[in-house]
Amino acid sequence: MSTDLSMFVRRDGPLAQMIIAVEGVNCAGCIRKIENGLKQVPGIVDARVNFSNRRLAVQWRTGEIEAGDVMHALEEIGYRGHPFETANAEAEESRHAKWLLRCLAVAGFAAMNIMLLSVSVWSGNAADITQETRDFFHWLSALIALPAAAYAGQPFFQSAWRAVRVRQVNMDVPISLGVILAIGLSLVETANHAQHAYFDSAVMLLFFLLCGRYFDHAMRQRTRAVAGNLAALKAEMAHRFDGSELVLVPAAALRPGDRVLVRPGDRVPADGVVIGGTSDIDESLVTGETARRSIGAGATVYAGSVNFSGTLTLKVTAAGDATLIDEIERLLEKAVVAKSRYVRLADRAARLYAPVVHTAAALTAAGWLLAGASLHDSIVIAISVLIITCPCALALAIPAVQVVASGALFRAGLIVNSGDAIERMAECDLVIFDKTGTLTLPESRVRNRADVPGELLECAARLALSSRHPLAAAVAREAVQKRPFDGAVEEPGRGVRAMVEGVEARLGSPEFSGLSTSKIATPDCSATSIIAFRHGDRHAVFAVSQMLRPDAAAAVRELKALGLELAILSGDRAGAVAPVADALGIARWRAGLKPADKIALIEEMAVQGWRVLMVGDGINDAPSLAAAHASVSPISAAHITQAQADAVFLGERLRPVVEVVTIARRARRLMRGNLLLAALYNAIAVPIAVAGLVTPLIAAAAMSGSSILVTLNALRAGPSVPARREPSTVAADLSGASA
Amino acid sequence: MNILIYLVPIALALGLTGLFAFLWSLRAGQYDDLDGAAVRALLDDDLES
To answer: What ipTM did this prediction achieve?
Structure first.
């Protein structure tokens, strides 16, 4: 069967290029092995590994080899790769990061050069500088500062203009005003041969703030790259009919009207209608329901469901044709609009800060006028108030903490999606869990492994490696040695068999394994399935069902200790939810909820004053995640759901949810502490400025001092225990999660 | 203070050179793979084996 990867290939004349996210690149040796290995393949022109984001760019001559051959060659070298399609959002981010870096470079160059001139003027003022030299230096500063500020200030001017146009105030409004007034005042003063000019303050302010912006952005970009690789790793392939021939294509390349084949054990790659075959499907990722649904021709199935027993042929339908997804998208739209009303801590501070400072400046001017000073002197002093209160510390207070906190969260196995997520997560006091795939593991596990002798379990597990059936996959997960038996044969729909140590071993339905059904105790719950194993005269029966995440109970205890209320809202039946709620000691729970019910309940809680942190993974949870105050989802969650979550956690432990709350709360404490520091600084600096005692030297010292103080304080948002996890460990978790 | 006539343009030119060198290296993609640059130093591809 051929593989069609053309959607990932970019053609450029006789050359074609593809980006591949590669697993397991950990050292220089891997880079050499991959690059040299691929370059030896005839037809490949260039191969270059980007070690920072674990991606490989391959260029080859079209006609000589195809994309599939490149993937194959990579596999032969010993690396698993996943074709990668750069998401528009990521490309946009990287352009923006480069732009910020260019602004930062310009501001840095200008700040250094102006400071060189300023220090000369300051020391000259104390000694014997002539007025001509001073004016010359001031004009020179102006020559550097004007174009530099016009270029490097763009991020702030644009953002401020956007805010002002809709009659809002954000942090960039006072920043822009401060910079423009400082430069304007300095120009006038220079023309008047005055002693003081503030060109250095204005440009240095831009430099410090751009540092904060850039680091904030770079952190987010790094986590986004990991998230992008994950998406590539999770990308499903689909068997599409081209005429009567089957072609393996990425699920993203499917179009409405395509016919696809879904084998037992496969995930349904796209929403569609069954046109052939019957089967049982597990829709737990879609609805949270753990009991399987029998379907036949004409039934609607949703992407993300797992096909259990029979082979199905589907006709892919457009997103709007599927009623469930339709409803979810409608709910989503509503929820997202409601959430955009949240005002960030920084903007709240700006709304308070801007009027106070601007009034103070106006009062200063009026006061000096009344006291008999000249109009010129009064305005100069008023503007110096604006410059000294220039919100450098205030504007750095929050991004600095965000950078350190998202770094700490990343090391704890969490990828943060949105910038203001951290403060929202810190405010939550009620955690609502979805059950299926969130409190429980995303895939089924063997429940009674303790009752089966070790070597029998290992034998069954290694045999299960040769089967694609979801129940067998649960048994295969128990294998210590991931080495399948030679000559294992799978009989679709029945089981798998192989000769082990000269005796036949069979794993599958009880009949297939030759066990009479009377020997088997009926499972206690309808969501438990059984799979039987026989090796010679020894046999075992495995009960396979959804199981709690290994540390769920401990995580729930810790969350309670943090003073959080807990609740479960599930789409599953009450009979399946009650035991979970019981085992975890969560008193509030509701079962059998539709997406709209979940949203209604969350909104009700919000009206009662709760700040909800929603943790969920199903497609049915997507609107609730968007409606909640903050949200987290496991990496196994459906695409549409992950896109709504503020953070995504890796691995099979629930512990990151605890980590989110502790790190976010510590970060918020530090943000507030930083805002307080900035306010304190202003409390000291403003009276000096109002009294008319500020010189450019004092302004420069005060600005750098307060910025450094705030940044140092922010560093405390990092991990209290220096348990450093390299991105490669995170990547290992990922492959573990996907295996 | 006539020395300033030489020194100031020299200082500015040096600064601008630095700035343009940085912008050029940014455009050339030298900051796209910072971790890679660190480990690639350990490869001895340049040696004849």
So the answer is: 0.88
